[in-house]
Design goal:
Blueprint lengths: L10 H13 L7 H7 L1 H6 L7 H12 L1 E4 L2 E4 L2 E2 L2 E4 L2 E2 L1
Antiparallel strand pairs: 1-2, 3-4, 4-5
Length: about 90
Amino acid sequence: MNYSKKPKWDVILLLKTLLIKFIYHISWNNLEGEIRDSKMFMKFLGGKVPPKSTVFFFYKRLQETVVDGGKMRTTLMNKQGLRQGDQRV
């Protein structure tokens, strides 16, 4: 069993949050507030708003790359694809 105090956020939710941030040019400091203030954003994210620190950490990890056997992948991926809990995307 995993007794981690921090909830694991869905990879798709974090990607959607990054999509909102970069399409609408929202700063990291205003990201949570802008999402909470917009019904459209809240509906797009299913009513869940990850903390900006989680989204920023996810963004930084997404930028890291690993070359494995001639294939390039992010550090958020295992050999089968993006990690999402115990499921693979």
